[in-house]
Amino acid sequence: MNTPQHVAIIMDGNGRWAERRGQTRTTGHRKGVEAVREAVRSAGELGVKYLTLFAFSSENWRRPEDEVNDLMGLLKFFIRRDLAELHREKVRVRIIGDRRTLKPDILSLLTEAEDLTRANDALELIIAFNYGGRDDITRAARLLAAKAARGEIDPGSISEDSISSSMDTAGIPDPDLIIRTSGEQRISNFLIWQAAYSEFVFLECLWPDFNRAAFEDALREYGNRNRRFGSVAERDLALGS
Ligand code: FPP
Question: Yes or no: is domain 6-135+173-239 CATH 1.20.1090.10?
Answer without folding.
Answer: no
